[in-house]
Amino acid sequence: MPRTRLTVFSRFIIFLLIALPIVYVAAALFNGEDPVANVKGWLGMDEPEPREESYQAPPNGNGATDASLQEIEQLRSENERLRQELTRCRSEKSS
């Protein structure tokens, strides 16, 4: 059987695969960081911090605030005005 030999480049890649994680862990520990937490953060595996959500009941009891009701009414009136303008433009165009 022919004997296969590793090229210089393949030896270099294997060296990097072994040496770089060791060097990173050593540098992170030297800087006072947690290397495992850093890697988990980069990969998106870190656990999100629990958020405290407080529920406040709406003032009028049906799920909408007074400001949002006013905004809804304003949008409805604008919608109606635009519909009237559209029908007026269509009637002028057809005449």
From TrEMBL:
Residue segments, region Disordered: 40-68
Transmembrane segments: 12-30
Compositionally biased region (Polar residues): 57-68
Alphabetized UniProt keyword annotations: Membrane, Transmembrane, Transmembrane helix
Domain of life: Bacteria
Protein name in the entry: Uncharacterized protein
